[in-house]
Amino acid sequence: MIKNFVCIINYNIFNMTEQQDQIDFTSLNLKYSDLLKTYPIEKQREIFQYLSELDEHNRKAYDIAYSHLGSSFSVSRSNGFKMWLASKKQT
After folding, report:
1. pLDDT on residue 6
2. Spatial separation of the C-alpha atoms in residues 81 and 50, rounded to whole Å
3. Is residue 1 pLDDT above 90, yes or no?
4. Rounded distance between C-alpha atoms, residue 10 and residue 42, angstroms
5. Distance (Å, rounded) from C-alpha 23 to C-alpha 12?
6. What is the DSSP annotation of 20-82?
7. Region label for 40, one of left (φ > 0), alpha (ψ between -120 and 50) or beta (otherwise)
8. Domain span at residue 8?
9. CB neighbourhood size of 28 (10 A)
10. Stronger pLDDT, 66 or 1, i.e. the higher one
11. pLDDT digits (tens, 9 = 90+) for 19-73
């Protein structure tokens, strides 16, 4: 029930920010690189959607990867994102 509520909130934030052509990554309560803001808006939307769908286990893995790799960490090049994107394209 809580997961559905979080998804609804993230979906609403995504739709509100989508209209402004700017994604509000701060709403996810995750650390992120400012480089994300330089990506094309479509890539930002994909990354936002991916991060908003992470379960608690994968959120922790993301936090660990980000904190250990620092500025060299790239969500768009991570295995999790690539697998998520491939699964979305298959549907």
Report:
1. 55
2. 7
3. no
4. 17
5. 12
6. TT---GGGGT----GGGGGS-HHHHHHHHHHHHT--HHHHHHHHHHHHHHGGG--GGGSHHHH
7. beta
8. 2-90
9. 19
10. 66
11. 457 899 999 999 999 999 999 999 999 999 999 999 999 999 999 999 999 989 9
Give the N- to C-terminal CA distance of the chain in Å, as an integer: 25
In the chain, the number of structural domains is 1
Q: Taking the mean position of all CA atoms in its chain, how far away is CA 32?
A: 9
Nearest alpha-carbon partner for 64 in 91, 16, 30, 21: 30
**pLDDT at site 17:** 46
Residue 85 has pLDDT above 80, yes or no: yes
At residue 34's C-alpha, the angle toward residues 72 and 11, to 5°, is 110
* Tokens standing for residue 8: 């609804």
